[in-house]
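Friendly challenge for the regulars: who can give me the structure tokens for this chain first? No prize, just bragging rights.
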Amino acid sequence: MIPWLAIIRIGARGGRTVRLWIPLAVLWILLLPLAVLALPLILLYCLIGRVSLVRAVRMSREMLGGLVGTRVEFEDRQHHVSLHIA
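First reply, four minutes later:
Bragging rights claimed.
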């Protein structure tokens, strides 16, 4: 299953924390025309590289599905930023 939501938290030390909930469905809809345009190149790559198109699509879907549950956090002396993909 592909991720549908990204939660970004930006906080200052001893200050206010801002949470942003970003629906990734909008991102997938915006990327759909690019995927359609890239389809001939993907087909050509599969033919030249002798890769099954079904397997390439399945692996791409699994890579996107692997993003679910990803957490990235980083901080410096004044700020703390975290990203959670759900």
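The mean pLDDT is 91. The radius of gyration is 18 Å. Your move, everyone else.
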